[in-house]
Amino acid sequence: MNYSEKFRVKPGGTVRLDKIDAAFKGKHEDQASALGEIERYTQRLRELQYLLYAEGSRSLLIILQAMDAGGKDGTINHVLGNMNPQGVNVFGFKVPSAEEAAHDFLWRIHQAAPHRGQVAIFNRSHYEDVLVSRVHNLVPKKVWSKRYDLINDFEKNLVDNGTHILKFYLHISKSEQLRRFKQRIDDPARHWKISASDYSEREYWDDYAKAFEAALSKCSTAHAPWFVIPANHKWFRNLAVSQIVVETLESLKMEFPKPTVDIKEIRQKYHLAEQEEDAKNGKKPKGKNRK
Ligand code: ATP
Ligand code: MG
Q1: 16-31 CB burial, b ≥16 within 10 A, e <16
Q2: What's the pLDDT tens digit per position in 210-233?
Q3: How far is the CA of 230 from the centre of ligand 2 (A)?
Q4: Within 6 Å (CB) of ligand 1, which residues are found?
Q5: What pTM, to 2 d.p., does this model score?
Q6: Among residues 36, 27, 80, 72, which one has the least CA distance to residue 248?
């Protein structure tokens, strides 16, 4: 099944999260049957990212947003972490520092946008400024309500400069969140992940859902689409995200750049064929530059 199409929020559409099944599994019954496919996509993801890096002309920005315990870290670890770290940067956006807060909300975001040839992964993003800021009235409505257009314009600017943008909302149900919080409480190795705000923010679930619905509806554009990924099953989330990133990169029809040197000339000048033959026959190489 083509998940790029199925989970993409159509521009101008209205998202109702309670109508979307967070436990969707597609054709696979369980993780075991999906593993082969996930493995193939993550392997291909690595190859394509290497091509993007080699090409050095375009870039990819992946934005992850979710309710607490929605699986942003897991997606980075299990899917996106398979790419070559040389070409990938991960940025986590927390409560803005004093310096960040003294600038416009996109200032810190723009600095983290990917260079040509690079992938940037945002663990939270400028969308916090229409999510937590809206839910908790951190700024007045007349300020946050203008941000949707500002975000669309900002993303358009990045896209016009060669960045491809994919935005994933990892959709878990409220009961799945509680189950994950309980797992953290029960497992000492996960206690560090718990913050008091996880439980207090849970009380605002419906407000967050409304804020997410507005962001997903207003900011899923042709140039920078949002995808709502059913994420109760971590393996399904990994399958869907990896497939969508792979399909996007495949669609770029990337090619390795032409060599900047004349390969034939190098082969002749340094007698490479002879050297290889000598090495194969166990002969000691002769000549001054042949060690
Ligand atoms: P995460 O929960 O994303 O895995 P974490 O647990 O390491 O990250 P937290 O401190 O729990 O770190 O999460 C970051 C916090 O920063 C979230 O509560 C988020 O809402 C908040 N935050 C991020 N961006 C902004 C912003 N622009 N304005 C206000 N709060 C923000
Ligand atoms: Mg947290």
Answers
A1: ebeeeebebbeebeee
A2: 999 999 999 999 999 999 999 999
A3: 20
A4: 68, 72-73, 93-96, 123-124, 128-129, 132-133, 195, 197
A5: 0.94
A6: 80
